Protein 1
Amino acid sequence: MDRFQILRVSIICLISLSSFGTKLSSQDSPILAENLGANEAFVDGDHIFYKVFESFSNQNLNGDGDMKDLVLHYRNIQTGEVVNTRIAGDFLYQQILSNRWLILIAQEADQSEDLNGDSDMADRVLQVHDLQTQTTTNSNLAVSTVLHNREGTQLLLRISEEHQFEDLDGNREIENGKQTLHIYSLETGEIKNFGIDALFFLETETEYLFSIFESEKNEDYNQDGDRADPIFHFLDKETLELRNTQFSYAVTGAFRWTPKVLEQGEWLYFLIPERTQGVDFNSDGDQGDLGVRAYNVHSKEILEVAASSFNTTKFNNHIVAYVEKESIQQRDLNEDGDTHDQVTHIQNLLTGEIKNLKVAGFPAAFHNDFVIIRVSEGAQNEDLDEDGSIFGEVYFRYNLATDELTNLHLFGGPSDNVIVTEDSCLFLNQNEFSLKRDLNGDGDEADRSIIRVA
């Protein structure tokens, strides 16, 4: 309903003004108001949709033999034509697609009809009304959830075996709580049942991304020796073929609240726990860490990413800024004489090049061809802002085009202290005392300011 303008008044009227936008004089035509007999409406495109009380109109508008219902009508704003959809009740879902299809999930009890043919009137059934032909198609599907809609062509649905009263996954049982993925074509009315339950994540130009639990079909999709993981699958929009990525993610344990997948330009980045994948990505002798894989939505190519976290990593299409832990690498990556730091690296997925910037810190933001890095003086073992101590953090900027690393001499803070605009970076909460500079020219060094860097 977020696309619609919702109108709620005691009675909805259509008002016609003879001289809209001008002051009406006594010689102007009178204002005409048409009472639609409804108390709720939404507007989309050229149509206003509203429900009419049967008792108000004294008619049986949906053909169920009584006059107790609210029945959906719509009016073409341009032509004034009114259409009765003959669908009654409070809809659990309503959406307009391509200014043509009105998608409704109707309750059988409101309609007084067994819409999906399972011999009861307790279900919620998908109805599709074509605004061009002014006809309604009953899908006969007891829909639990509309997972997603592809504008103008497809609906992605979860259908309940219990409410459909049908074995939908082919195991010869009708299971309570069992739901399966279906795709409904708005253009043809064709329905495809995939026989599995799936969780929708996102849509690319050519594919949908779902996760499917291995237990659905008792298969080891990622070949880790068990059948207990959720695995990402792509579904081709045209062929409707499922393709297994073998990527898992965590639904329990320490990583269950972390993001699973990020979109960045033409790339998708997947965060994969070693435990659910059954591998040791970083060769540190355990399976308690994370790995990252990249997927190009055009070439369908899958590439390994050197990063091991989303929290300490920034993505800019095919460029990845991430940190390497010296303790895992067992090397002094920033040449400060120890192996206790986390050091920023840059990976170019297209060339395969990995660049060690040799600064102990975390990527804070991308800005065009620049990476902003928050560097720790203590970890770097260097007084970077020349204030006589090594207890702070300082922002650096790395130029991807020229391979130059520049100390901005700005006070470092959380990554949300950096705001990237189209033509500049704003560094918030710059502490004059820490920087030992009067940033706002008021004669002291006691304030906090915002610094803009082009």
Protein 2
Amino acid sequence: MNKQYFTFAEIRDSLADMHDITSEKRSAFANRIKNLQRKGFPGGVNTGRGTTANYLWEHLIRLGFVFEVLEIGIIPDKAIEFIEIQNDDLFTAIKSLVLTDGVERTFFVTSLGGLEDLRGHLLLETISQIVGESELPMLFAEPANRPKAVIDLHELVVRLYKSLEKVTSLPKETLADSFKAWAESL
């Protein structure tokens, strides 16, 4: 199956739907996405002024995840760094969710206190992890010296897919097949 491409409008409207952005605020939201593009995120989309951007499933997933991280309160530059560090684990978890129909929910868990060392470097390798539903209670049973944020990756994928389904003109079967094919290609 060929790669499935999405337009900026489909990506914007999908993410806006997912985050309950009203039509009055869509322009500002589009500017947030464009600002991320100016920073080179997600990679492979920043095609230059006047060139139509084509988005793939991985771009939608990365943008969706970054907006979840932004909601935690991390600034855009650090949110981008955040996903770059987590990229392989994130896509491995999402592949598993898609190909197993989310049999076991998967969560991204990060400790919020001390996200940066004194030089401003993210400390994600020691404070963030992707865990299955069975492991989640153990993380919260440990003494809580720092508050934690949890992103339900199953919920993220479902919300991204459902919101894209609302705004694209693709038939549902084509969209589902392209999503599965993308996951299988990882």
Protein 3
Amino acid sequence: MFLEQLTFEAHSRGYEVFAVNTQLTEALAELDQILPSAGKRLYLVDGYVRYRKAVRHIGKRLPANSILVCAGGQGIDHILYSEIAEDMCGVPREIDLNILDSNEISDWDHLLERWGFWENRIEEDRIDRLDFLRAQCGSENRSIMLSLFRDTRLSRKIDEIVNFFIRQNRQHSKAFIAVLINALCQNHVEWSRISDWLEIDNSQLKIAVSLSPVGDFMSGASRWYEFTSTELASYILNNYDFDIEEMVEVYSKIVRETAYSANDPRGGFDSRENLKELMRFRFLTRLFSSPTSGVDAINAVYQRLAIVPRIRENDQFWLQYAMARMELDDLDSAETYLNTAIGLATKKGEDYSKRQIIDQRVRLRFRKYARQKVNINKNELLDACQDLTNLVNEKNEPLVHPLRSAQHILDFLEEKADKLDLAIIAALKDTVGVMKDKMPTGRLDKSQKGETEVIRKNIRSCFLILANL
């Protein structure tokens, strides 16, 4: 939606807009032909990580009269700001589209009033409605959307959609799950492939879509199988009871076939990028969010996918699998998988970043040695302290990821403080001191709502405990 609005605004200001959604060699050659133009041009890349090669190509050749706009997409949190600046050959301006300013909040109020979505709140004066958007919705687009899904007539329409596919027309339930999964993946996997893999009768499904309320939320006649809203797809998956085994089956099939497609020497790029998106642990937690069966479902998925060689040989697969086991408190298996991930990552050379894996290993070690009956391995704890200090000290890297270890250090200290020798105490004091010094006065970049204060409190508690040892 935002990129479409940006395209419209750019056109109105006299810019030609080029959407870049490939990085094939011939496409980059075509870019070389149009980049030197004297006219005003805007190059739009929907997925910085996915099309990073194209971003670098454009960044090195971008004339002063043109603009390069990149949507962050999944995985952007783990890329150094300095790397992004180098790729784009300048100082990029980062805009958080989820956080609204006063004018945008006012626009939301006007939109909700114009189309009748305020419902009972329309009786409140405008100041109270704006305060609701700021205070209760945190001035966030996503929170406002979720409030609409929950508390307005949209919620009744969503109920109708789910009932139509999951209860009234069970023959289409797998197809509906596939539509939702692909929406979470930004519709990057071609629907024609998904329907072939799952043996979906598209003609019958299209008829069903046209007869159901879901048609209002699809992308139109030509792309009738695409949800227009990732947030709506996520909301449906998070708030309705699907057959978990059916979800595991559909998701695993899509991922397996995507992995096989990644072996194509020419067209495999998109499949390899799709595979990264589909297998992120964060993606899986959005897909399988049930508090009772979600984690078990995620682990069932990893067990099924481990038989695929391309997946099994990927360090990120073992990292994500380890994170899933940590959610179940199976730290022994998680440690094994993290060691496998480090081994595979090391084979890729010194320039390949192991930051995410090491970050998770630090958390695991503090959790492991916080257990009552587990004897402390001094060398492993000293290594964890040094690894964490190095992670926190990395320049231009989001601090929130390594600082999340503060909770695990606090749990460890509360359990084992009286069993620590002087060397471990000294190392912990140094590490926590660095964390305290690096903690900003404001909100941590990339942090979740309310997370900054929790981290700050945990670091302060660790510091006080250590000061008394």
Protein 4
Amino acid sequence: MKLFKGDIIKKVNKLMDNAEKRKEKLQGRIETLQGEVNHLYQAKQDDFSKAVLEGGEPSKKLANDLVKAQDELREAHEQLSLIDGAVKHELEKAKADVDKERRQFVADKGEDFKELFERMNKSKIEYLETVIEYKKKHGEFDREYWRMFRDIEQRVGLRGIDPREHHKVMFTQRHQVDGRYTPAITPEEHRDAFMEGKLSFEIEKNKDIFKK
């Protein structure tokens, strides 16, 4: 089986991880800058009020610091908004390659399933051939029983029995019945194997029931 490399998937996942880290970093910076802007804005307002009351001039440094912080905050917001667009653009470029890789992955894994299907099909054929063998053997049993016992039963006054009811396999049984275990596969056993990933309790309990 070929070893799946998944180079494009790794590249896309790395892109997404880096973009997420960048976004988290920018979001943290935006939060910090927003706090600075709020603080500087209030400081500027307080400084302006003080200048009015005292007849002085408001601080140019506070005004410049506020503008600088606002510019940095705006730039951080712009960078954050650009990340999603850049990621979307790169993902669109990688779309065809990802599709190619997933098709290759599915095709490569097909070898494993092919082996399983071969085993399942072999088991199915063996099972159905055994059913055919059972049907023939039971027909022979019926005929042999009637040939040997039909007349003698009447002569000695025995109540007749139907050989078809003996050594009977219930192929229409939907689930196992306690005390009436059938070697035929039931729908419930299929469900337990496929949905639950296990053999049913009745199978486990009766796995040696037909051993000599």
